[in-house]
Amino acid sequence: MVKHDLKNKPSNPESAIRHNRRIIILITMVALLTLFLVRTGISQDYITGRFIPDSLKKVVLIQPTGEDSCGLPEMTLIPDTSELYRTVMRNINNSFIHEFLDLYFIAQVYLKNNNKADAIEPAYLALTQNQGGFAKSGFLIKQGKNHILKEKTPYVDIVTGQATSSPGRLMSLTQLYPHEMGHVIYRMLSPEDTAANNTRSTDIHFFSIMTDYSTAFNEGFAEHLENVARLFEKNDSIRTGIFADINRIGKASPRSIDGFEHDFKYPFRLGYYKASMINWYQKFEDYKRYALAMNGDIRFKNAELKLRSTEDQLSYRNSGVRLNRNESRNLVQMLSTEGAVCAFFTHLSASTLREQYLDLDFYGPFLYDSAIVTLSPNELFSPLQNQFIKYFYVLHHFVTFNNSLRSQLTDFIEGYMQTFPTEADTVKKIFKEVLGIEYTDQLPPPVWLLIRDHSHRILIYDLFDAITVPVYTFDLNAGQAGDLQTINGVSRKDAENIIAYREANGFFTGLDELNDIPGLPAETSGKIISAAFDKDYFEALFSDFEVKLSIGTLVKKLSQYFLLRAFSWFILISGIVYFTLIKREKQGFKRTAIFFVRLLLLWILFMTAGLATVVFSQQAHLIIIFFSVFLSLLTLFIYRKRKAHRFRSLIAIGAMGLVILVSVI
Q1: 376: left (phi over 0), alpha (psi -120 to 50) or beta
Q2: Are 452 and 442 spatial neighbours (Cβ–Cβ below 8 Å)?
Q3: Of 174, 175, 130, 128, nearest in space to 155 by CA
């Protein structure tokens, strides 16, 4: 007899049907789950950029040897076994930079697919010891006795200390590197210019300063990537540290700004805040790049002071330490200010447009492997990548790096709205909400002026003429009263009259329109018209002019300024003490000389204390008061039996303490 295994056998046909149905459902669920996991895995791979082979996605760390060859800097590879390599790569791989670099490779894929690039290059990062933070191109890699020529390959130059320092700081490598790579990507994508260079501004760019359209767009686009890095940073430790820095600098800056303004208003001060500007201003500049871009306050004009020196007026205004919230920038001023460009792009990149994907065909040129086109766009690219792919397309087709008949931002917006018409209304809305004016592509022709024989400081930090050029330039439609006053013979009243006429009647289309301004003397309009921009003169001048941004030169100049003022005050205080006290006592030369040596040492002590409180303390005035009181009490104790010495010393301490106190508030 055959034995049957009845253990799992259904007892009747209905049970068998139910049993088979369960098996089919289970198999189907497993198959669907497997398919889901496979597709999810693939999707995540592509979203993180793995649609580009890892063999192509490399970050190569290099450092200069200090030698040049064929006009290019010589570099060596930093060994991947070194501590320097491990530290920098850790900062890159554990921060937003890792995600951002995918955009660099996507841009290269796009150019290669369009036959605009022969190969996909690694991201080269040069670690230097001197001044860094620049996007450059062209270098040689030294390997033994051989050289690998990278004649047109872009790279970013960053100071080693900044690349290895804590990533959780404002403007650390996590934000500086995306900024500089923004320059690289924009330059790669921009179509060939019809002009080598169209820059006309004599000012080195800063967030709040007006330069020219091309500079403002180039820097503003790069600066907005700093904000993208902050907003989309996924490392909580880095993100927390960055925003803690922003809050701290925002709270500390008003004291430095007040002191800086007082140094301009009250010339008898020692000028501590002017002299220490190089210490505190860059932090404030980095703070503004986030704060004024996010809240849109960059739309307001920089505040001005009416000062005797025209250059001091320009220096204070260009620093942008205060805003004139009663006056908004006009359209030309907005498009000439990198901060406005940065603010627009910051809000555009953070907008819901990131979630609006296009038809799959649009993304074809951005794919390294066309075999994966069966996936949907949102499976291929993250929302942030999606938005930047749109940027890449527009930059490549509509925006030239230097030469534009309008402005680069206008070219970008027009190209964006033309390419993505369903997003046009949102783009215009963001422009108005952030910058406070309606978007229009109707711009006046540039009306640039060139003022010869006017010594102009090209750097905001430079308040003491360390780096100057013998000309000053500005666009009449962007200029303000202070700019016009650089023309010899143009008064403040006439300058304000010209600006008021422009604001009431619209932009100038030519210099001849100055003759139509009521009340403007013909002599004044003639002087302005004669200052029309001379392109040949400007280019010839700067072809032989090499800007050397040496921190040492700046420090030397500000030290000379500070020491001269300190010496003048010492002579004044010494003279008061001598003629009111010592001369009557008829002391001998030796005793008098010893007293003045002690007086000088005391003055050096006071000056050092004042500088230290300005740099390191939020309560400088209270510390100086306490310091003066302490020295007075010490004097009373030391000279308790020598009335004349006690009186002289107290007078000197009081005078010195008062000078320092007035200089730190």
Answers
A1: beta
A2: no
A3: 128
Q: 229-249 as b/e, with b when 16 or more CB fall inside 10 Å? A: bbebbebeebbebbeebbeeb
Most confident by average pLDDT, 143-147, 459-463, 473-477? 473-477
Q: What is the pLDDT of residues 189-214, one digit of tens each?
A: 998 765 556 788 999 999 999 999 99
Query: 202, 190, 230, 189: which is closest to 342 by C-alpha?
Result: 230
**Calpha distance 589→595 (Å, rounded):** 10
Pairwise CA distance, residues 165 & 285, whole Å: 20
User: What's 343-375 look like in SS3?
Assistant: HHHHHHHCCHHHHCCCCHHHHHHHCCCHHHCCC
The CA distance from 648 to 598, in Å, is 12
CA gap 321, 273 in Å, rounded? 12
Could you tell me the two tokens for 609? 């204390």
Token pair of 160 as six digits: 């080693």
CA pair distance 102, 44, nearest whole angstrom: 13
In whole angstroms, give the CA distance from residue 534 to residue 587.
67
pTM for the whole structure: 0.87
Question: 489's torsion region: left (phi>0), alpha (psi -120 to 50) or beta?
Answer: left
Q: Which two tokens stand for residue 381?
A: 């690219």
H/E element, 533: none
101: left (phi over 0), alpha (psi -120 to 50) or beta: alpha
H helix or E strand, kind and range, residue 457:
strand 448-457
Q: Largest Cα–Cα distance of the chain, in whole Å?
A: 143
Q: What's the rounded Cα separation, in Å, for the pair 508 and 521?
A: 18
70 token code pair: 């064929």
**Interatomic CA distance for residues 104 and 57, integer angstroms:** 9
Model confidence pLDDT, tens digit, residues 406-443: 899 999 999 999 999 999 999 999 999 999 999 999 99
Residue 341: its pLDDT value, please? 98
Q: How many CA atoms lie within 13 A of 234 on its CB side?
A: 9
- Pairing between strand 323-328 and 59-69? unpaired
C-alpha pair distances (Å), 611 with each of 270, 469, 570, 658? 10, 30, 16, 14
Residue 28 makes CB contacts below 8 A (sequence gap 6+) with: none
Range among 14-23, 129-138, 590-599, 624-633 with highest mean pLDDT value:
624-633
Burial-class residue 27 by CB neighbours within 10 Å (0-12, 13-18, 19+): exposed
CB 459 within 8 A of CB 551: no
